[in-house]
Amino acid sequence: MNGTGSAAPTIDVHAHLLLPEVEEAVAGHPGLAEARALDARRNGPAALAVNGPMVGKRIPELTDVAVRLAAMDAQGVDIQLVSPSPSHYHYWTDPQLATRVCRLANEGTAAHCAKAPDRLHGLGLVPLHQPDLAAELLDHALESGLRGVEISSHAPGRELSDPAYEPLWSRAQETGALLFLHPFGCTLDERLDQWYLSNTVGQPTENAVALSHLVFSGVLDRHPGLRLIAAHGGGYLPTHLGRSDHAWRARPDAHGCARRPSSYVRQLYFDSLVHDPGVLRELIRVAGADRVLLGSDFPFDMGTDDPLAALRAAGLSGPDLQAVRGGNAAALLRKD
């Protein structure tokens, strides 16, 4: 079924779905209007005018399993790791509504994947803005049959280095849950409200900031077994780690982790969605071919319609190509 002539499956770890039941649950709440106003300010009117029709055209791929599977076949993808659209995070909700949103997302994703269990695996949601609930709702996602959860780069007023997340990291490590780090929005706000800079610059920036918080704060020292996948190739961080290492050596205030920052990329996973074969080769050089996974951002316009072609363009060796194409993800998804 895969497009490589190999028996091993081709696995895309960065694919999304929309869950109407989540949006129905938050409809009419005052916080939703405020969140949408913030989103509009961050993205700007031109981006919003494009986003609506773009998503609208992709509703079948985002909701209908048969359409998803047909698209996967056309791409040569055997298996997808499916996560809710980051627009479902709703990090403004109170504890009761946050719990409902996450439970609906977990159950809805599980139901979607259950229609093709040999080809679809799912990730749920936890409420980063309600850290006291995060570990409990991670358990709910796992009990629903999902492989872990998707999280953003931060929650309002909290970075991923916040001690309040220690129970989440502990539980994720204990259970072996996958954590998919996928930003939504960028705190640079109106500085990026033209030319879709909110995404093209904002998403890689958010990835780099979030990963730096995990590294420099010692989260990865305390929880070395975390299985965290960073979307968009980890953003700007993997290719600019020399500056982080220099700061760690030169400044005592940058010495919150036990080792040089660049060493921690070997504890993380990264998807391949970097839109540049040279950058992908550098990511593999820095992180290792065993730490990079195929990702497409299916089916959005900032993804790739042909993830295998994007991977082949990097000119990798045969073993490295096969590892990124699916071998690494197969090992992560394998049930003990």
From TrEMBL:
Cellular component terms (Gene Ontology): cytoplasm
Domain of life: Bacteria
InterPro entries attached to this UniProt entry: ACMSD, Amidohydro-rel, Metal_Hydrolase
Domain Amidohydrolase-related: 11-334
Entry keyword set: Lyase
Example GO biological process: secondary metabolic process
Name used for this protein in its record: Amidohydrolase
Origin species: Streptomyces fuscichromogenes
